[in-house]
Amino acid sequence: AKIEQAVRALDAAKAPVILAGNGIVRQHAAGALLQFAETLNLPVANTFMAKGVIPFSHPLSLGTIGMKSRDLPWFAFESADVVLCIGYDMVEYHPEMWNPDGDKVIVNIDALPAEGDENYIVGVGVLGDLNQSLPAIAAKARPRTDTPFQPIRDAIIADRQQYADDEGFPVKPQKIVWDLREALAPEDIAISDVGAHKMWMARMFRAERPNTCLISNGFAAMGIVVPGAIAARLAFPDRKVVAVTGDAGFLMNSQEIETALRLKTPIVILIWNDSEYGLITWHQLRHFGRPSHIDFRNPDFVKYAESFGAK
């Protein structure tokens, strides 16, 4: 019955869009999501923690949504009338950001019951394994023939490519993320710590596979990146692994370089060095107009790595 309700809501929609969350990764349902989106010709935006559930290079991808501002994918949600939240958790990107007026028809599809609030009133809840629910809906719903969000997709592509050939110094964050993506194969793994760089990685890194761009979100604990990169290399010894971190997050667990050397898990650590808690600086400036107690002094990171025997 819930499948039928979801189909009716989808068939009645004028501009539906998919919001893909981390439940897709956890249920190993990226393939089911991709087939669902292709069958019904539905655009997909993913949360920070669901990067790669649809390849960024796919024409139906709207990239990553989750910024607390009107970023490009947000405009698709502004004009959408039906939002299919698949494997989505409110902690990833609160619905007050993409459904401020509470006027969207929400179809929640997940293996767990949905939480709700005034901005997330579920119209249809399909409870079950995504690998079964999505094909069941796709088999009965009417495929879309229009592509109302193509201009947004085009704008996102242009935005990501804007600094591909930039030669400026200091190197711009967009250029760093672009070059990092170009240096890695689709299945290689980038792990992001928490800080200002996390926003650049979440927004700009073009993930092509699930679990290839891991971002500490939710509680957003700092210091994850070096031990996280070691764990990724242990799990996938044949893939390249890059730890992307700010200087502050790096120093919280930098001693784990010793663990990496002892376990023979070669990783690359890419440090964004600004000698401050940059994201906290931004929040302080936004709220109070001045920063407070956010700067610190760094060691010579090259010598620090060499002291462990690393290169």
| SS summary, helix count | 14
Strand order within the widest beta sheet: 3-2-1-4-5-6
What summary fits the major beta sheet? 6 strands, parallel
Give average pLDDT, whole number: 95
How large, in whole angstroms, is the Cα Rg?
20 Å
Residue share in β-strands = 15-25%
Q: Please give the oligomerization state of what you see.
A: single chain
Structural class: alpha/beta
- Give the CA-CA distance, first to last residue: 60 Å
Note the run of SSEs as H and E. HEHHEEHEHEEHHHEHEHEHHEHH
| DSSP summary, beta strand count | 10
> How helix-rich are the residues, as a percent range?
25-40%
Low-confidence stretches: none
Overall body shape: globular
Task: List the main descriptive attributes of the protein structure presented here.
single chain; 311 residues; alpha/beta; six-stranded parallel β-sheet; four-stranded parallel β-sheet
